[in-house]
Amino acid sequence: MTGTLVLAGTPIGDISDAPPRLAEELAGADVVAAEDTRRLRRLTQALGVTPKGRVVSYFEGNESARTPELVEELVGGARVLLVTDAGMPSVSDPGYRLVAAAVERDVRVTAVPGPSAVLTALALSGLPVDRFCFEGFLPRKAGERLGRLREVAGERRTLVYFEAPHRLDDTLAAMAEVFGAERRAAVCRELTKTYEEVRRGGLAELAAWAADGVRGEITVVVEGAPESGAEDVGPEELVRRVRVREEAGERRKEAIAAVAQEAGVPKRVVFDAVVAAKNAG
């Protein structure tokens, strides 16, 4: 019989948030695959657990090479536990390749649910949570980042992002440019840790705050786009949206068509607004 792959959530900050089953799985697994074996050692010491099985590293740099090895262990009947540094494996962390490969070989995959920065930030944000989408990390390059944001400019679900602290101000400024300065958002920093902070406000306001420098693990929650009609989006806003798309490399004709569809107005309305702004300038 084949073994079982167990994806285990680990605390995102406060170690006491570790689910009880995590200690049991760490103690009983035949193989523990960890994103960082040093952090795993600190975790097991805090939980008072000594893994009986073999401990191996499983991170972005060796994920492709180590996956076949772990799958063979699973096919041979082993119970393999996968843990990442914080949160749930596969969610912006290693794990997807191993799960897909295990499923392909008809290996049972289960999970030990645990803390999630995505759900915690959503709950604390004060923004609508009935429908949301997780966008992970944005591209590091400015042009690619703007392009990715443009793709979801009309998304009405609440958006959740992870971001590095040293890029937060640039990301919030780009969001303010694409989504609008007043779009509501929340920056959740160091969740469940000693210096936990949730900063709420408009995107431009948050970008100005972040310009002074921010530290820690960051999750950004952004309000979805409002339902818009011709009476809701004025000429200046239509022109701004076209300009954002043009600066990101889109041709004016395509930009006007995209903005019209996004705002729910005829293309002619957007075209006239762009022409009027050009003449006024």
UniProtKB/TrEMBL annotation:
Residues 4-207 form the Tetrapyrrole methylase domain. One of its GO terms (molecular function) is methyltransferase activity. It catalyses: cytidine(1402) in 16S rRNA + S-adenosyl-L-methionine = 2'-O-methylcytidine(1402) in 16S rRNA + S-adenosyl-L-homocysteine + H(+). One of its GO terms (biological process) is methylation. Gene3D superfamilies: Cobalt-precorrin-4 Transmethylase, Domain 1, Methyltransferase, Cobalt-precorrin-4 Transmethylase, Domain 2. The keyword rRNA processing applies. Catalyzes the 2'-O-methylation of the ribose of cytidine 1402 (C1402) in 16S rRNA. Belongs to the methyltransferase superfamily. RsmI family. This is Ribosomal RNA small subunit methyltransferase I. It comes from Streptomyces djakartensis. The lineage of its organism: Bacteria, Bacillati, Actinomycetota, Actinomycetes, Kitasatosporales.
